Amino acid sequence: MFKLSAGSLLKNIPLIFSAEETLLLDGIRHPAEMACYALHRLAGNLWKITAEGRLAEGDVESVFLDAWAVVDSIDRLRGLLGMVERRNPEWISGCQEFLQSTQTFRAMRNVTDHLGARIPYVVAKKGSALGVLKWLAVRNFSPDVPKNDWIISTCLILPGTLYQPNVQFLLSRDGEQIDNPVGKISLFAGEYECDLNDGVKKIVAVVESLELKLRAQLVGMDPDNLRCAKSDIYGKADLNAEVRDA
User: Fold this and answer.
1) What's the structural domain count of the chain?
2) CA distance 73 to 40
3) Which of 55, 115, 122, 133 fits as disulfide partner to 127, beta carbons 3.0 to 4.6 Å?
4) Rounded to the nearest 5 degrees, what angle is found at the Cα of 30, between the Cα atoms of 204 and 210?
5) Which long-range contacts (CB under 8 A, 24 or more apart) does 44-52 make?
6) Span 59-75, pLDDT tens digits
7) pLDDT tens-digit profile of 77-131?
8) Of all helices (H) and strands (E), which one includes residue 189?
9) Residues with Cβ within 8 Å of residue 190, at least 6 apart in sequence
10) pTM higher than 0.70, yes or no?
11) Strand partners of residue 186
12) 201, 216, 207, 202: which is closest to 11 by C-alpha?
């Protein structure tokens, strides 16, 4: 799972950045890490479901919560990275590629955000209120097992009580690489399909590019200007309770 290190510039933003710039960088960092964490947790739950061969109580809510967290995080990043490109183009490269390659995530989010107005459309597309989740799982991967004997399970979850006939399973293409043990996790809504594994890989690439560009701009600066604010502060206060008789 991708996770920014404790020494990452995005977790140690120098005070030379303005409050608005710092907030913008925080706004990029949070959904990037949230998407990576959500996908990691989602893959673990999908592997459990595949191994058990059934849906346990809470599985549907859990996996769709994480799947839509990835979609929402990518959509939020699209807006913030577009702002970076307009305001601070020297900070980043590859932004347009990211925006173009993730357009489907924005379109998919609009389907569910306006579900009340698009119910006939979703029904016609054989969908559900939460979409359809599909994935591939390599079940007996091992260096000791010949590749020809590997078993790949193709699975799906169609949530809700509306039965949609002829919903198709996901298939892998010849030569396609699949993350092990669970890969090609895909969410379908309306006419749109989003590969969540691929979306998170694009997040990692654009965030790493952003950090490299920012670090390059700080080379040679006076160390006094590179002092950093604290990151992710936790606070706690204990209060004494006074119990009074009614």
Assistant:
1) 1
2) 14
3) 122
4) 45
5) 46/135, 46/137, 46/155, 46/182, 46/185, 47/137, 47/181, 47/182, 49/155, 49/157, 50/135, 50/137, 50/139, 50/153, 50/155, 50/182, 51/139
6) 999 999 999 999 999 99
7) 999 999 998 888 888 888 889 999 999 999 998 887 777 777 888 888 777 888 8
8) strand 182-189
9) 107, 108, 111, 118, 121, 122, 125, 127
10) yes
11) 134, 195
12) 207
CA distances from 86 to 10, 83, 181 (A): 20, 5, 40
| Domain hosting residue 204, numbered range | 12-220
- Nearest CA among 136, 114, 77 for reference residue 190: 114
H-state helical runs in 88-135: 95-101, 103-113, 119-124
Length of the chain: 246
Q: ω before 14 within 30° of 0 (cis)?
A: no
Cα distances (angstroms) measured from residue 216 to each of 91, 119, 209: 9, 50, 11
Assigned token pair, 240: 């004494």
What whole-number distance in Å separates Cα of residue 209 and Cα of residue 37? 20
Instruction: Report angle CA 157, 62, 155 to the nearest 5 degrees.
Output: 25
Say if 234 falls within a structural domain. Answer: no
Angle, helix 19-52 to helix 59-87, in steps of 10 degrees = 150
> Is residue 27 domain-resident?
yes
Distance CA 112, CA 25 (A): 28
**Domain annotation covers residue 52:** yes
**First CA to last CA distance, the chain:** 53
